Automatic annotation (TrEMBL):
Native source organism of the sequence: Rhizobium laguerreae
InterPro entries: Glyco_trans_2-like, Nucleotide-diphossugar_trans
Protein name: Glycosyltransferase involved in cell wall biosynthesis
Superkingdom of the organism of origin: Bacteria
Lineage, highest ranks first: Bacteria, Pseudomonadati, Pseudomonadota, Alphaproteobacteria, Hyphomicrobiales
Domain Glycosyltransferase 2-like: 15-124
Length: 310
C-alpha cells in the first residue's frame, strides 16, 4: 500500500529532531517547515546546544503555540554530534528524521522518505537501512544547485563505501550525498549505530563508515529533493577544525585501514586533504577580504585566526 493511501491510524509516529545553536534568525523557518509536513503523526524536538542568542526564546514561543514541539537544552555546549545522539535517545517516534537549524524540509519529505525506507527494507529482508535524499543547495548568493542523494536507483552497500569515505578512490555504485540533515531511519537502527559525541565535525562521516562496515544499506528517493539547504559559514567550519576532525576520523578507524592495507594511502590522502583545505579557504575567504574590503588589517587578523581554528 502506498503512503498516500495509508489511513491516518496506520501511520507511525515520526520524530523530527532539529539541532540548534545560535540560530535565532533561521530556527523558526526550520520549525515551520516541519509543521507544514503532510504527516500528522508527528513529534518535533529541538536540541539547543546552549545558544547564547535568542534561539531558545524563539523556540519557546513555538512550544507555547503547538503541543507537538518540545525543547531540550544540553547541560553544556557539547557539539552537534552530542545533540544528534541525544535526539536519538529522546525520540518517542518509531522513525526519526534530522534537520539542521538553518535548513527547510520540503512538504512531502517525511511521506516520501518513509515510503522509500519501508519499501527498501522489505526488499532487502529488513536489513538496517539509512535513508537520505536529494537536496536543493543555496550558496548565499541566490544561486542554487540540485545535489543527488546516495542509493537512488538501487541501495548502496559494502565496505567499499567506508574505504571511499576514508581514503577516496573510485566512487561506489549509486554514490551521492549522505549528510545528516537529510537522514531518516527507524529509531532502532539509529540506536544500533549512533553518533559519536567526541567529534566536533565529521561525525556523520564516522557514522557512515561504521554503518557501511556493519552491513547497513543506504537509500534515497529517486529525483526527489527532501530539503532546501542554506549554506552558512562559522568557526566550526574553519580549515583547522576540518583537518583536526579528519585526523580524528582516521585515527578512530586505523584498525580497519590496517586490515585493508590502506594505512599509507590514508596518510597521503590526509596530507592532500590538509593542503587542499587551506588553499581553498585562502582563495575563497582570505584573499577576497584582503583585496576587496575596508579595514584590511582587521580582516587579515580575523581570517588568520580562522585558519588557526579560533
Amino acid at each position: 500500500m502506498g503512503t498516500n493511501n495509508l489511513a491516518q491510524n496506520e501511520r507511525p509516529l515520526i520524530t523530527v529532531a532539529i539541532t540548534c545553536f545560535n540560530a535565532e534568525e533561521t530556527i523558526g523557518r526550520a520549525i515551520e517547515s516541519v509543521i507544514g509536513q503532510n504527516w500528522a503523526e508527528l513529534e518535533i524536538i529541538v536540541i539547543d546546544d546552549c545558544s547564547t542568542d535568542q534561539s531558545r526564546a524563539v523556540v519557546a514561543q513555538y512550544c507555547e503555540q503547538n503541543s507537538l514541539i518540545g525543547i531540550y537544552q544540553n547541560p553544556v555546549n557539547s557539539g552537534v554530534a552530542y545533540s544528534r545522539q541525544r535526539a536519538i535517545d529522546l525520540a518517542s517516534g518509531e522513525f526519526l528524521a534530522f534537520l539542521d537549524d538553518d535548513d527547510e524540509a520540503l512538504p512531502d519529505r517525511l511521506q516520501i522518505q518513509y515510503g522509500k525506507l519501508v519499501q527498501a527494507k522489505a526488499e532487502m529482508s529488513n536489513i538496517p537501512t539509512l535513508c537520505f535524499g536529494d537536496r536543493i543547495v543555496e550558496n548565499g548568493r541566490c544561486e542554487t544547485r540540485h545535489v543527488a542523494g546516495i542509493g537512488r536507483s538501487a541501495p548502496a552497500r559494502g565496505i567499499n563505501i567506508a574505504t571511499f569515505l576514508l581514503v577516496g578512490g573510485k566512487r561506489p555504485a549509486n554514490w551521492g550525498a549522505a549528510g545528516a540533515g537529510t537522514l531518516f531511519a527507524s529509531v532502532s537502527d539509529l540506536k544500533s549505530i549512533g553518533f559519536d559525541p567526541q567529534f566536533s565535525r565529521a561525525a556523520e562521516v564516522d557514522l557512515l563508515v561504521r554503518a557501511a562496515i556493519g552491513g547497513y544499506a543506504f537509500v534515497s528517493p529517486e529525483h526527489f529533493p527532501v530539503i532546501f539547504q542554506h549554506v552558512t559559514h562559522g568557526p566550526e567550519k574553519s580549515p583547522f577544525r576540518r583537518c583536526k576532525s579528519r585526523y580524528q576520523l582516521l585515527q578512530k578507524h586505523r584498525t580497519f585501514l590496517a586490515q585493508q592495507g590502506l594505512r599509507y594511502r590514508a596518510a597521503m590522502r590526509f596530507f592532500i586533504y590538509v593542503i587542499t583545505s587551506y588553499v581553498r579557504y585562502s582563495f575563497s575567504h582570505l584573499l577576497p577580504r584582503l583585496f576587496h574590503e575596508n579595514g584590511r588589517r582587521g580582516a587579515c587578523r580575523q581570517s588568520f585566526g580562522k585558519l588557526l581554528g579560533r
